[in-house]
Amino acid sequence: MLVPTHSPTPDEVAADPVGIDHMLSADERAVRDRVRAFVDTELRPNIAEWYENAHLPRELLPAFGELGVLGMMLSGNGLPGRSAVEYGLAAAELEAGDSGLRTVVSVQGSLAMTAIHSFGSEEQKAQYLPGMAAGRVVGCFGLTEPNAGSDPGSMTTFARRDGDDWVLSGAKRWIGLASIADIAIIWAQTDDGIRGFIVPTNAPGFTATPITAKLSMRASIQCDIELDEVRLPADAMLPEARGLRGPFTCLNSARYGIVWGAMGAARDALETARRYALERVAFERPIAAAQLTQAKLADMTLDVATGSLLALQLGRLKDQGLLLPHQISIGKLNNVRTAIRVAQSARTILGGNGITAEYSPMRHVQNLESVRTYEGTDEVHALVIGAALTGMPAFR
């Protein structure tokens, strides 16, 4: 039986309070540490400015490609082919930097690339996926509409046949990366049900307009898309995507990443508050010595530890091909709720300084309100879980 050789320091306890490191392989830790180092050197020094100025540097996409996090779980065609747990660890590190920056990776990889990888022709995969994995080709994913969010089956964007071509008309909203994307995966109604299309963003009739009046996700891009008689050749359709199974497959991949990412944001908020409490002196001692502060830190640590264990369990299931949709909903609903609670509590430890851009918790709170909404609201995930428990869907 192994016996601990020393009592851990406070920093060591804070870094891994329940010993998750021992549950990871050397390869998994290496992926995590590589992404963490990238976040520390390339993202943290700049994120407050990017957030304040609502700026996403386009050059981050090739940098993410070089890091190997675009389409990270996908294989073939020069793709990274990493495990679900490795991707989850990377997502947590990226969101510890900023939710919006993790969202960039998710839109490119879990949504746009997964659509092509899962439902595209071999020609489409060969044409687009290598460039997308490298960040040279940027994709977006057009499902949500102004009046069709949680109910994508009610979308009104329509693709009609005109000879051998398809002609798309309609509108999409809250589409990440659309204004800098080279291609858009657009889901549309047809006479044969919902189908997916690869749409070059320079096609006549395609317009992407950034949504600028945002109080959240300011270091990423979300857009309105207008499709005005956009003409496409027949081979623009994703041949294997029929009905909502296509977009839902991609959404579940993105939701899985959120389970991990939210815990990255929560962990960063907690550590920011802990370090501040150790340095901030009030009533002649660090506020970390106060009982109420320690109670807050303890509660936040419990939340981050249990949420991280849940993420790891779901990752192991996914790597075994056993992860079920209701389990993804459990992870997304629990961990985003938890992360918001942790970041809010962390902000209170920072006092008035906590509302400044110098510290991350309030930025995480604001971002996580968006994470809470996209890829399925709390209500949607509660109903997914409820349907799994009762066998009676309650969406209508």
From TrEMBL:
PROSITE patterns: ACYL_COA_DH_1. GO terms for biological process: fatty acid beta-oxidation using acyl-CoA dehydrogenase; fatty-acyl-CoA biosynthetic process. It catalyses: glutaryl-CoA + oxidized [electron-transfer flavoprotein] + 2 H(+) = (2E)-butenoyl-CoA + reduced [electron-transfer flavoprotein] + CO2. PANTHER family: GLUTARYL-COA DEHYDROGENASE, MITOCHONDRIAL (PTHR42807:SF1). One of its GO terms (molecular function) is flavin adenine dinucleotide binding. It comes from the Bacteria. Residues 242-389 form the Acyl-CoA dehydrogenase/oxidase C-terminal domain. Residues 140-230 form the Acyl-CoA oxidase/dehydrogenase middle domain. This is glutaryl-CoA dehydrogenase (ETF). Belongs to the acyl-CoA dehydrogenase family. Its cofactor is FAD. Keywords: FAD, Flavoprotein, Oxidoreductase, Transit peptide. Its EC number is 1.3.8.6.
